[in-house]
Amino acid sequence: MILELREYVALPGREEELHRRFAEETLDLFDEVGLDLRGFWQVVGERRRIVYACAFDDVAAAVAHWEAFRADPRWIALKERTEAAGPLIEEIVSTYLVEPDYVASRRVPPAAPGPL
């Protein structure tokens, strides 16, 4: 498994529209398409910067997911409607992360459940 860390930087003055699009529609669409969202944040003091992490089996699965997502008619319609006055995003940075073996080996397995 890998995590993809995605950072969006809204165009100046468009950050509230970007937050609204995520809050009111995009996150629901993520659920509908089965995106395994692991966390969602905004950078402290920088509302223009939204960061989220999602899990995939591997990089190829992530690339295939986003290609399918960008071709989804629901996303196309949502993007066209919310960007009628112009784009919302200045930059998107995607970083793929994997946990090194030396960290995974330090994890304590969960305790077995006790008797009922």
Strand order of the largest sheet: 2-3-1-4
Write down the secondary-structure element order: EHEEHHEH
- DSSP strand tally: 4
Beta-sheet strand percentage?
A: 25-35%
Sheet with the most strands?
A: 4 strands, antiparallel
Mean of pLDDT: 94
- The stretches of 5 or more residues where confidence is low (pLDDT under 50) are none
Structure explained in plain terms:
The protein is α+β, with helices and mostly antiparallel strands and 116 residues long. Helices cover 39% and strands 32% of the residues. The chain has 4 helices and 4 strands, in the order βαββααβα. A 4-stranded antiparallel sheet has the order 2-3-1-4. A hairpin with a 2-residue loop joins β2 and β3. It is elongated. The two termini are 33 Å apart. The relative contact order is 0.26.
How do the strands and helices of this protein lay out in sequence?
Blueprint: E1 2-10, H1 15-32, E2 36-43, E3 46-56, H2 59-71, H3 73-82, E4 89-97, H4 101-104
Antiparallel strand pairs: 1-3, 1-4, 2-3
Helix pairs in contact: 1-3
In short, what is this structure?
By secondary structure, the protein is of the alpha+beta class. The chain is 39% helix and 32% strand.
Keywords summarizing the entry:
single chain, 116 residues, alpha+beta, 4-stranded antiparallel sheet, 4 strands
